[in-house]
Amino acid sequence: MKRVRIPGTDLEVSALCYGLGSFGTSVRGEEADRLYAAYRESGGCFFDTAHCYSFWVEGGLGAGERALGECLRRHGDRAEVVIATKGGHPDAGPGYRRPDRYLAPEVIASDITESLDRLRVDAIDLYYLHRDDPRVPVREILGALNAEIARGRGRHLGASNWPTARIAGANDHAKARGLRGFVASQPQWSLAHSNAEPPKSDPATRFLMDEDVRWHATQEMVFVHGPRVLRHERPGRQGCLRQPHHPRPAGAGTTPRLSARLHARAGRPGPPDVPELPSHPGPGHAESSPSRRGSRSRPGGTHPGAGPLASRVT
Description:
Layout: E1 3-5, E2 12-14, E3 17-19, H1 29-41, E4 46-48, H2 63-75, E5 82-87, H3 105-119, E6 124-129, H4 138-150, E7 154-160, H5 164-177, E8 182-186, H6 210-216, E9 222-223, E10 229-234, E11 237-242, H7 256-265, E12 287-291, E13 294-296, E14 310-311
Parallel strand pairs: 3-4, 4-5, 5-6, 6-7, 7-8, 8-9
Antiparallel strand pairs: 1-2, 10-11, 10-12, 10-14, 12-13
Helix pairs in contact: 1-2, 1-7, 2-3, 3-4
């Protein structure tokens, strides 16, 4: 599997990233272990989970991080993989009660402590803030995150569902003060124009618009989505685009094709066939998937209005 270096970091990730929303709940125990092994044998090294996974399942809060920690312990390959997790999520109802100021420094610190304990690791390779809170100044947020890096509990930073203006403001602030800024962006993204309104249950969700795509194309950062990462290239610039959430077959945290391969290797029936997206015949593609030496990849196509971007995924 192809590897991609995340600009501004020492992280080289596989072109396909394994999203772990189902780990520890519908996928657990020996089944999780088999899928983990099949993904690693395929060359994958980038895992994506979150502090809140999978609160929507009874008893599932923290299950994804704990299950990944168990796999790392059993396989003994922590040094060979890149771990991305997310914290700083707003209140989500009875299954995930949160403070009103969910990006306060003490909340960020608490989320990181709990994630490290569940994962059984000393540091998180790529730590995303799961949502933005415009009430909190970026200087305060970056101060808290950089304090965690100084403590050795995190290595690099990402923003999930953040407006591009806030990412730009945060990175300008970081550059001016010699701090670590965001090296990855993870909004909701689709190859098609979305005609859906953001879910009322999660108003902090950020859907990528044409102007956001154009902005990301000019940045030295990766643009990532759960199961797959798309790499965009233009003269003098390169980045990655991450795809949005789509309904996935139970147990599939990957693209349908890779999921079928992993299930086959693990000796169990795979998910139902899903039609392939047509590939875009444009120039240059790269697969992306995250790991300490990996990155993610995704289905190809040019987002309408993306200008000179050339994107393909295999």
